[in-house]
């Protein structure tokens, strides 16, 4: 039974979990199965005067002109100059915005499947609230169009401005369209012609890779009378499909097998938020620690000096300065952490603030008494 402890300001015991029940499919992913990123450029219309300023966003004006030209709307107001740009009306609308549209297409996505898309402003639009995305093709890294997106935006943030004050909440220039894209072309399907597969560990570790291999081979020897897994390295476990078994069924069977993953001894510190996370295998050799600080307080007290009656003196304001210094008594505490519970108990007994705990842990590491890696975020 291993335990995870979480430190947030003070050290608190999180819920005890047994790592013996971790499924293989929760800590690995099948090699070659990945999401495909899609991107597109489009226009959002229907904004209430919060769109791009066409003079400041020329790409928005060019996109509007191209879109209207394809729809048969002629914006030319006179003969064109040979070799020069077309003579166009000066458009002043602020009801549209140029946006980038992004989506993530999962593997094995079929034709007609819908995706959620994220719409982000490119120009100087102040808000996309109430807008509608016009038909936008979404392309992959190979330049092929895999999906088309269109629909009304859902924006969680807002921006309201007056003459002397502006109120904003969240990000009003980013919106989302649920099921806003439809797949027109299926992504490439990974294939293994030789009948081999591979599992990739989310957290690479040699011991975990060996445990996964042993668990799979123990299962396949009983069911298929042959070993099916070989550990390649700390990240990958190679699989060979048993004869007559489809990859989907085989991955479903081994995905429910349980292992006890090995975690490295790490201490993760976030100095900005004061968060400290200590891994279960962190150990500290016996050390003596004292921590304290000197506090200086300077107080300025203004006083009025009043001259005696019928004198030629002047009333002046003088300042009285008082300086006090205090330093708490230094208490030396002994820390030794053969296990995480003992270490946390010792740190709690000292009664320190998060910033003090961070300083002490870093000092213990510098002293060579901590057998763990410190990761500072």
From TrEMBL:
Leader sequence residues: none
Keywords: Bacterial flagellum, Cell projection, Cilium, Flagellum, Periplasm, Signal
Subcellular location: Bacterial flagellum basal body
Source organism, top-level taxon: Bacteria
Keyword Cell inner membrane (UniProt): no
Keyword Signal: yes
Subunit note: The basal body constitutes a major portion of the flagellar organelle and consists of four rings (L,P,S, and M) mounted on a central rod.
Function: Assembles around the rod to form the L-ring and probably protects the motor/basal body from shearing forces during rotation.
HAMAP family: FlgI
UniProt-listed PANTHER family: FLAGELLAR P-RING PERIPLASMIC PROTEIN FLGI, FLAGELLAR P-RING PROTEIN
Family, per entry: Belongs to the FlgI family.
Name of this protein: Flagellar P-ring protein
Species of provenance: Methylocystis iwaonis
């Amino acid at each position: 039974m291993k335990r995870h402890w979480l430190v947030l300001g003070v050290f608190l015991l999180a819920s005890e979990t047994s790592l013996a029940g971790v499924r293989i499919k929760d800590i690995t992913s099948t090699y070659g199965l990945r999401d495909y990123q899609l991107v597109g450029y489009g226009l959002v219309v229907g904004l209430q005067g919060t769109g791009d300023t066409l003079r400041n966003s020329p790409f928005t004006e060019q996109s509007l002109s191209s879109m209207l030209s394809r729809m048969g709307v002629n914006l030319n107001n006179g003969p064109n100059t040979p070799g020069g740009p077309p003579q166009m009306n000066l458009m002043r609308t602020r009801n549209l915005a140029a946006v980038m549209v992004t989506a993530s297409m999962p593997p094995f996505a079929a034709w007609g499947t819908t995706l959620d898309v994220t719409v982000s402003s490119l120009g100087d639009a102040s808000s996309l609230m109430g807008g509608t995305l016009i038909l936008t093709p979404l392309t992959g890294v190979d330049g092929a169009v895999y999906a088309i997106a269109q629909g009304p935006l859902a924006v969680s943030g807002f921006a309201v401005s007056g003459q002397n004050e502006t109120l904003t909440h969240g990000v009003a220039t980013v919106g989302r369209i649920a099921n806003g894209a439809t797949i027109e072309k299926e992504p490439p399907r990974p294939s293994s012609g030789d009948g081999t597969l591979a599992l990739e560990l989310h957290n690479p570790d040699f011991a975990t890779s060996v445990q996964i291999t042993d668990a799979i081979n123990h299962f396949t020897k009983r069911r298929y009378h042959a070993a099916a897994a070989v550990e390649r390295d700390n990240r990958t476990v190679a699989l060979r499909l048993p004869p007559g078994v489809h990859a989907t069924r085989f991955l479903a069977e081994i995905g429910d097998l349980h292992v006890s993953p090995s975690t490295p001894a790490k201490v993760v510190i976030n100095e900005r938020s004061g968060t400290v996370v200590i891994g279960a295998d962190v150990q500290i050799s016996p050390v003596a620690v004292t921590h304290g600080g000197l506090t200086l307080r300077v107080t300025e007290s203004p006083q009025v000096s009043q001259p005696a009656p019928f004198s030629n003196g002047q009333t002046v304001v003088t300042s009285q300065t008082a300086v006090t210094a205090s330093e708490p008594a230094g208490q030396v505490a002994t820390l030794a952490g053969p296990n995480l519970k003992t270490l946390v108990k010792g740190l709690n007994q000292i009664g320190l603030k998060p910033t003090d705990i961070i300083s002490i842990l870093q000092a213990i590491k510098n002293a060579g008494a901590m057998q763990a890696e410190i990761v500072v975020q």
